[in-house]
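User: Sequence recovery, please. Input:
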């Protein structure tokens, strides 16, 4: 039997909405989606120079700007990809929650009615969200709040939780996928929801990640620390944006038609190794401690 690859993916002529498409992984994913024949509506705070159906320039940390984009998006959407993200610095904890988690939950829920039966929602979380189980109850408390304003109040009341801002936001995203995959609004219409968890990838965020990882904001020191945590133990190398963007497109496609609720680590096995070490050691060690030991 001869297989038609475009048909297998199922994006041809389908409507796809994707955020963060100006750069990095999401840009790679958008290029792939276009190649597969999707009608792409792309959103970013920066200009998007790809031949999409429509490009929106909007700040997705801002509810009014999100609402404006949402009011203009098509009535029927087949696949939604939420990919925008920023690094966490001291002082931008709330912004990181809005960009890296809350806006993504908000957009998903505003657009859910328009997503077709058997459609898909796919997020980019991170290996940084590893250990999400430890905040699950807190995350679900936040997920349950019905309005943007109530969520902002929750963040205000929980400064400790959002202190490790990037990690907490990604953990919330992973908790969201786990919590929602069998919820009525998704499962009754067989809408799939998944997240990919990229390892260290060279993108537009690399410089900010380097600076935010160093205690003194020194990019070179931060780069060394990231290398030590994510690459040294396996003599590894940073991924390219397409190493994440392309598999994400596969996850949202008809090829993965029976896959939902999955948190897919794309990290060459690094976090599986951390899990193995933690299970064998029977300890409550932090990721930093475990990753440090894996280098010895
Ligand atoms: N690069 C890595 O090593 C790495 C690892 C794990 C996870 N991630 C995640 O991957 C996702 C994609 O990031 P990337 O690494 O490709 O970086 P990137 O900077 O190349 O792409 C992120 C995009 O999000 C957009 N964006 C940021 N804030 C926005 C806002 N308020 N409104 C609208 N758009 C906004 C940026 O303009 C940019 O185009 C992010 O969620 C990031 O947290 C990255």
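Assistant: Recovered sequence (296 residues):
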């Amino acid at each position: 039997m001869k297989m038609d690859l475009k048909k297998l993916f199922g994006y041809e002529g389908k409507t796809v909405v994707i955020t963060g498409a100006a750069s990095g992984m999401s840009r790679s994913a958008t290029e792939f989606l276009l190649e597969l024949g999707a009608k792409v509506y792309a959103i970013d705070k920066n200009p998007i120079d790809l031949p999409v159906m429509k490009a929106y320039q909007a700040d997705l940390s801002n509810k009014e700007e999100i609402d404006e984009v949402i009011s203009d998006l098509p009535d029927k959407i087949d696949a939604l990809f939420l990919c925008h993200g920023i690094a966490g610095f001291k002082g931008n904890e709330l912004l990181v929650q809005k960009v890296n988690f809350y806006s993504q939950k908000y957009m998903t829920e505003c657009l859910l009615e328009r997503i077709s039966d058997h459609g898909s929602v796919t997020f980019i979380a991170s290996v940084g969200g590893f250990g999400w189980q430890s905040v699950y109850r807190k995350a679900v408390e936040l997920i349950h709040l019905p309005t943007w304003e109530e969520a902002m109040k929750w963040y205000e009341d929980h400064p400790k939780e959002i202190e490790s801002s990037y990690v907490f936001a990604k953990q919330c995203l992973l908790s969201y996928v786990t919590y929602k995959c069998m919820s009525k609004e998704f499962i009754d219409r067989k809408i799939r929801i998944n997240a990919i968890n990229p390892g260290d990838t060279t993108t537009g965020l690399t410089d900010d990640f380097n600076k935010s990882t160093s205690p003194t904001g020194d990019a070179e020191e931060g780069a060394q620390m990231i290398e030590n945590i994510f690459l040294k133990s396996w003599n590894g190398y940073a991924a390219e944006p397409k190493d994440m963007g392309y598999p994400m497109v596969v996850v949202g496609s008809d090829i993965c038609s029976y896959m939902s609720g999955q948190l897919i680590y794309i990290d060459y096995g690094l976090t599986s190794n951390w899990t193995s070490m933690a299970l064998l050691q029977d300890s409550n060690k932090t990721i930093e401690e475990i990753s440090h030991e894996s280098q010895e």
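The chain has one domain: 5-200+238-267.
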